[in-house]
Write a structure and sequence with these properties.
7-stranded parallel sheet, about 950 residues, 3'-5' exonuclease DinG, globular, nucleotide-binding, Rossmann fold, exonuclease, Nucleotidyltransferase, domain 5, alpha/beta, 3'-5' exonuclease activity
Amino acid sequence: MTQRYVVVDLETTGNSPKKGDRIIQFAGVVIENDQIVDEYSTFIHPGQEISLFIEELTGISNETVKDAPDFEDVAENIARLIEGACFVAHNVLFDLSFLQEELVRCGLEPFYGSTLDTVELAKILKPTSDGYKLHQLAKEENLDHSRPHQADSDAYATALLLLELKKKLMNLPVMTLKQLYRLSFSLQSEISELIDACIASKLTKAEVHSPELITFRGLAFKKVDEESDYKDREAEFPQDDEKKMAMLQNAFPAFEARKGQLEMMNMIHHSFESSQDAIIEAGTGIGKSLGYLLPAVYFARKHQKPVVVSTYTLQLQDQLLQNEVPKLKKILPYSFQAVLLKGRSNYLSLAKFERALREKEDNYETALTKMQILVWLTETETGDKDELNLTSGGQLFWNRLQSDGLTYVGLKQPWLELDFFERAKRTAGKADIIITNHSFLMTDLLTEDALIPKKGYLILDEAHHLEQAASKQLGRRLNYISVKTVLNRLGTTDQKQLLYKLEKLLSNNGLTEGKSTHDLDRKLNDFAYEFEQLFYYISNQAQKLSHSVSPKRLSFKIDDHRWSKAILVAERLVDLLGSIIMELEKRLSLLLNNEATLGKNALFYLNDIEVLLGQLQDTRDSLHEFFINPQEENIYWLDYTNTAPQHGVTLTVQPIAGSKWLWDSYFGRQKSVIMTSATLVVKDSFQYFKAQLGLDSEPIQTARFPSPFRYKELVKVVVPNDIPDINCLSVEEFSETAANHIIAAAQAAKGRMMVLFTSHEMLRATYFSIKDSGVLDEYTLFAQGISGGSRMRLLRNFQNFEKAVLFGTTSLWEGVDIPGEDLSCLIIVRLPFSPPDEPVTAAKCQLLEKQGRNAFSAYSLPEALLRFRQGFGRLIRTPEDRGVLVVLDRRIITAKYGLEFQKSIPAVDWHQGSINEMVDMIEEWI
């Protein structure tokens, strides 16, 4: 018999029927034989007032339901509609539980049939979606969803979504469906029945294998044709600017000549050909990416040598590969290959995933993640985790699936051809352009078996982050959660984790030699207890020093009496770890001497233990350096969040000036290094940037190509004169005042606004002040660190909403590209000086003071000017953009250095005025 689906959506006066909330609209859409055959919807009188919030959200007012029937009058119709059907909803638990309460209240039987949650189904079948809200999925699938938050429109859109998801399910190969079916019993709705029906349907006819898929060892993958190596030499780089213009205009008829871009191309080509280094600032609108990619490809093809392009942000990496490389392929008269290369842990290990699929006991999170990956394997060409939208539990499970370079040939061998990281390496070996990030680049440069040429050609985009990335890469981090995770994975003998399996292997192979596990178990228990005590003590001390809810960074000095007890505990921990590591190494060595007799499962266990051993050694080294043997050239600090006592502690160490060492040891040995960014110049000089990298005396050519935009015609800057000086108020008081101006600006700009903060503490205070006021309830507010999701996901969600305001901290001051009307108003809450007590800032300032230099003018001010320029750069991304910049920090007008900030950005009109004048200007300008 054909399954009948009834797709339901409710609008209600609130979230809890038990607290008296009632339904104000019901809608049901009936699907049979994959066709919508019936629809039923009705407004319902709730017997209570509809709040203003619900009215604004749904468009349903007290007037709308004035003559509507009570639920009792329609309850039997609804019960008949859903009887015998599969109950479908987008977040089925809410709609069904609410409806059940109402049916029972009216004396009717509750619904006992199957349920299907389209949120859950979408997570499985669309594992790379940015989000799973109905309006997001409808937009992605081009579905009719004209009136979000009205039950009839939502139910109809959900029905269309279900039909699309069923099509996707039917297009999957039977082997994938069977794997999904086995895992689906751990889900919250009866998706197993839908998968079972699809398998039955597909088995009635011979399966036609998609030419886009290949199968191996019971898994289906997207077929990827690895491009062959090019051996032919290509045309010479066109020295004549007119020829370059003709090429560009041939590919893009609307392309406008940008003199700066052409000069940048010539300079980079000359630098590569003459093996010279260069520093280039290319302002917004110059076309920086194309400016370096075009000469890079010509050089790579001519000399058969790859050019490496490294960026700081993942967003720019993706932009280069998705937008700029396809443009370049249109322009050039020949083919070339550009690939993305990331750190190994970004890639899925197929050997580990195959093993994970055999495990029988799945909780909800692991089952869902496995199902997402099974579907993703039929779509992905890269196996890169960043493509996936995993739950937080899924992110944790990924740590067990990520590539870590399996040691044993028997584990690697079957998967070598398909392995994602191995494929990325092979492709990079043939590529003309290798796109990577600063973090991976530096990790790779520091390894013996490097993938990136030691003496090659390198473009460092977002180069102003080079010093920060270098210091971070040469540092160490230690946190409670990661060490506890390692200890839990290892376990003691009676916990039946990896140590138990190791002992069992030794026993089964007759290698115990009468060794007792009691001593090792005791040491592990002692270590776990002492480690807990160490972080509990550190968090207590940190709490005394920090009274903020927001994350706090505190400097750590070994000679500070506050930490004397921590040092004693750390010394015991280092001794215990040394002993534990030695015991594990002995056991591992016994088994490895008998490797030939071990099965595949045993080798997996040994590989897992080797990985954990490496992590334990890192932990020992970090504890030793942090508490016992700190280095003078390093900075030590702890990050603390008091919402999660010892769980919220992270210890960090990094060099004060790591980039100088890295330049002398590695970057300086490259044939040619091009450093570029939209913001490298401070006070019309590259000196600050060069000093950061220790390149003051290096003979590096420099060039600056300013933005071609006519900013005076595109931007107005407003500094409210009725806001107090930021230094005269506490964070809470200033946040209250700032909130009023932000609310007024948001209403004037109708959302489409970004608010930039320099501290998470002020962001939280301002965000909750605005949220609690209720004035912007009709606006969607996104806040970094509060709303959840990655930076890129936050940005995409921000652009998806009509009336949205985005609150951001450090990472949103740059690398954010929101062209057009999506961003029309930018608010900078305070000038971006780093707090003087921030450990990295304090250490750098102390070093400068020791050298007899003024730390404010040599470091604090230049750093703030660069960040202010980066923030300003978010507002205008194309020549057609218009926007208003509001600066809530009056020091830009009143302080001596205020003029430096004004001069740091292009010439624009500056205005001072009251909050009302600010509103008038925003409304008039945008």
